[in-house]
């Protein structure tokens, strides 16, 4: 079990979750200027991109040979990986909720996770090529005013998106494993 | 039939033509994000368009670094590097994938530069294709970024390192931007219009030398065993470029600026009453400003004011000719196709560039200057129908325009002669 979790990247993911919490603790409310952005940023605006990367990492099958020999169904493995990603995100979200700005931030962490799951489903290990411009665009869009009333997330839209992204992620994982198994000699 | 490995660098690691095209598309799409989120301000200047194209390397470079990292992880894991050691040119074989990624990324940069500069030119910007040499230095920066990706991928041998190669390379750009490390990874993102300015060849030469040295050093470190098998000339060249970079970093990194004032400024004018002149390299709003200036000037002349024959927008640090009025833009107004009539009113209300405007002593500018200037600009905006007269207690704004004109004339004469002590806001006498 521990070996499987390590193969799925539990160490990296845990480390990233810790980094996310440290980022919130040290820079969330600090205003700092980072060219080329013409407005001051804060740690909050960097959190969704970081969460996206940490959420995406366990969803990528870095050990396809191991997966091919698994006795469980590909869907179960896909769900297991999704659970690991969600488990890493949950303490971060819970920590964020302890801050006054938390309720503005958490929906965007869920949106970042949904975007990450979709990026992995679309581009597999190249997910970061999609997340890189998306993160840049997000930081541009925040104008240094995130979180706040301007960033009220449409929860009615967010929940179906998150569920859809999760379903897409598991379905894509299962499909990839099935194709590899068929192609295997 | 595939070529034998002995014929030179091989780029098969990049994949088939379809994969290469997909990589190029990903690089261009990523590089276009900083370009297209700039609200199109680069349409107003060819130089800004070129600078914005090089700024695409902010994201395109990290993306190329991530791609290089992925490829070198694949090379490392396939243990082909051991086979390279047995080939006649082992070091070239190891370098080939990095060279391939660098060529793809540079092609992406050139395509983005063609897009931005051609679009700006079509939008009316004055073309200065001779300045395209800055792309050479920028492609050297891409080489350094790709080599850093190859170093991370080649040494870790882990696929998960690819996004972190991208993040690490992006972080280098941030560190350059906030001045922690020298200008090496800064590739554009100017905030002004670059009117009357140009790119500093010395800074770009410094950037290119350091970037090439970094690239050579990072590649040498990415597989030291294969580097040891490089030809004597190859090793000497690598060490030389790396040492040159160190010398440049130690000796020439201080006070480097990307942009410097141009040796001369050329203006483009439209004749009228008044004539309006803008720097040729930031001429986009000329037609719109000219039309609005004629309308505003008409009301000043009707009031009996002597309007200067010519209004000129001079770049920072350049003084207008004596007798010229001053056009002043704020923010990115000089890059826009259309300007607010406020720009024309503000400019025509500045018939002379007085020394007090630039004095270090705040007492040089009397307290009455700003309220008087605002009232004159407000009066002009009321005359052109842009705003309604403000509600004032004393009723000056409710006077017939013929009774307002003496104040306008006296104020304008005082501004033109820089008799700022004579200025006073309008009042009912």
Question: Which properties best describe this structure?
Answer:
heterodimer, A: 185 residues, mainly alpha, 72% helix, B: 429 residues, 2 domains, 4-stranded mixed sheet, two-stranded antiparallel ribbon, 6 strands, disordered N terminus
Write a structural description.
The complex is a heterodimer of chains A (185) and B (429). Chain A has 185 residues and is an all-alpha fold. Chain A is built from eight helices and two strands; from the N terminus they run ααββαααααα. Chain A has a two-stranded antiparallel sheet with strand order 1-2. In chain A, a hairpin with a 6-residue loop joins β1 and β2. In chain A, α2 packs parallel to α5 (74-97), α5 (74-97) packs antiparallel against α8 (155-183) and α6 packs antiparallel against α7 (127-142). Chain B has 429 residues and is mainly α. Chain B folds into two domains: 9-261, no CATH class; 269-422. In chain B, α1 crosses α5, α5 (90-122) packs across α6 and α6 runs parallel beside α8 (201-222). The termini of chain B are far apart.
What number of domains of chain A? 1
| Helix and strand pattern of chain A | HHEEHHHHHH
Average of pLDDT of chain B:
91
Q: Number of helical runs of chain A?
A: 8
Helical fraction of chain B equals 55-70%
The chain-level mean pLDDT of chain A equals: 86
Count of extended strands of chain A: 2
Query: Termini distance of chain B?
Result: 98 Å
Please summarize the sheet with the most strands of chain B. Answer: 4 strands, mixed
The total count of helices of chain B amounts to 14
Brief write-up:
The complex is a heterodimer of chains A (185) and B (429). Chain A is an all-alpha fold and 185 residues long.
Please describe the topology of this protein.
The complex is a heterodimer of chains A (185) and B (429).
Chain A: H1 2-7, H2 10-27, E1 32-33, E2 40-41, H3 43-56, H4 64-68, H5 74-97, H6 102-123, H7 127-142, H8 155-183
Chain B: H1 17-36, H2 46-55, H3 57-78, H4 80-86, H5 90-122, H6 134-156, H7 161-177, E1 197-199, H8 201-222, H9 224-228, H10 232-252, E2 259-261, E3 267-270, E4 275-279, H11 286-302, E5 310-312, E6 325-326, H12 341-348, H13 369-383, H14 401-416
Parallel strand pairs in B: 4-5, 5-6
Antiparallel strand pairs in B: 1-2, 3-4
Helix pairs in contact in B: 1-3, 1-5, 2-5, 3-5, 3-6, 3-7, 4-5, 5-6, 6-7, 6-8, 8-10, 11-12, 12-13
């Amino acid at each position: 079990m521990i070996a499987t979790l390590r193969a799925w990247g539990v160490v990296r993911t845990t480390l990233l979750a810790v980094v996310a919490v440290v980022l919130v603790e040290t820079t969330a409310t600090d205003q700092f200027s980072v060219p080329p952005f013409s407005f001051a940023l804060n740690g909050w605006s960097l959190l969704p991109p970081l969460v996206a990367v940490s959420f995406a990492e366990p969803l990528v099958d870095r050990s396809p040979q191991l997966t091919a020999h698994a006795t469980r169904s590909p869907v179960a493995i896909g769900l297991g990986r999704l659970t690991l990603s969600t488990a890493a995100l949950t303490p971060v979200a819970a920590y964020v909720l302890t801050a006054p700005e938390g309720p503005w931030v958490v929906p965007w962490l869920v949106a970042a996770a949904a975007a990450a799951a979709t990026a992995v489903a679309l581009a597999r290990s190249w997910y970061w090529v999609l997340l890189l411009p998306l993160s840049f665009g997000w930081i541009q869009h925040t104008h240094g005013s995130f979180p706040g009333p301007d960033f009220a997330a449409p929860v009615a839209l967010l929940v179906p998106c998150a569920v859809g992204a999760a379903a897409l992620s598991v379905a894509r994982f299962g499909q990839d494993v099935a194709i590899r198994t068929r192609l295997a000699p | 039939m595939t070529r034998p490995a002995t014929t030179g660098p091989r780029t098969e690691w990049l994949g088939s033509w379809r994969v290469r095209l997909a990589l190029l598309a990903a690089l261009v799409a990523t590089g276009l994000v900083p370009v297209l989120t700039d609200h199109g301000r680069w349409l107003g200047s060819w130089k800004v368009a070129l600078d914005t194209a090089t700024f695409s390397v902010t994201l395109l470079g990290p993306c190329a670094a991530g791609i290089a990292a992925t490829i070198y992880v694949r090379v490392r894991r396939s243990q082909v590097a051991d086979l390279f050691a047995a080939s006649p040119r082992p070091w070239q074989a190891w370098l080939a994938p990095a060279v391939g990624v660098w060529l793809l990324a540079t092609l992406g940069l050139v395509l983005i530069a063609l897009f931005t500069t051609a679009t700006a030119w079509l939008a009316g910007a004055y073309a200065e294709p001779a300045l395209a040499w800055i792309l050479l230095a920028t492609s050297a920066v891409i080489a350094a970024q790709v080599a850093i990706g190859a170093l991370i991928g080649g040494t870790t041998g882990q696929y998960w390192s690819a996004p972190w190669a991208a993040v690490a390379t992006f972080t280098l750009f941030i560190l350059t931007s906030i001045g922690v490390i020298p200008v090496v990874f800064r590739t554009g993102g100017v905030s002004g219009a670059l009117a009357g300015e140009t790119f500093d060849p010395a800074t770009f030469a410094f950037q290119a030398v350091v970037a090439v040295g970094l690239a050579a050093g990072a590649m040498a470190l990415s597989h030291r065993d294969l580097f040891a098998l490089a030809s004597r000339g190859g090793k000497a060249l690598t060490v030389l470029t790396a040492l040159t970079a160190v010398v440049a970093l130690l000796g020439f990194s201080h006070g480097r600026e990307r942009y410097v004032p141009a040796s001369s400024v050329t203006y483009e004018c439209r004749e009228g009453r008044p004539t309006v002149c803008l720097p040729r390299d930031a001429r986009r709003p000329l037609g719109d400003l000219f039309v609005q200036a004629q309308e505003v000037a008409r009301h000043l002349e009707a009031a009996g004011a002597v309007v200067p024959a010519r209004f000129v927008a001079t770049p920072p640090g350049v003084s207008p000719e004596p007798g010229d009025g001053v056009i002043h833009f704020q923010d990115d107004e000089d890059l826009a196709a259309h300007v607010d009539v406020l720009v024309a009113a503000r400019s025509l209300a500045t018939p002379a560039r007085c020394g007090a405007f630039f004095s270090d002593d705040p007492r040089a500018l009397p307290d009455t200057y700003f309220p008087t200037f605002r009232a004159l600009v407000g009066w002009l905006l009321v005359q052109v129908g842009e705003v309604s007269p403000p509600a004032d207690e004393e009723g000056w704004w409710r006077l017939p325009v013929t009774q307002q004109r003496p104040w306008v004339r006296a104020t304008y004469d005082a501004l033109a002669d820089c008799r700022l002590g004579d200025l006073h806001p309008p009042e009912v006498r």
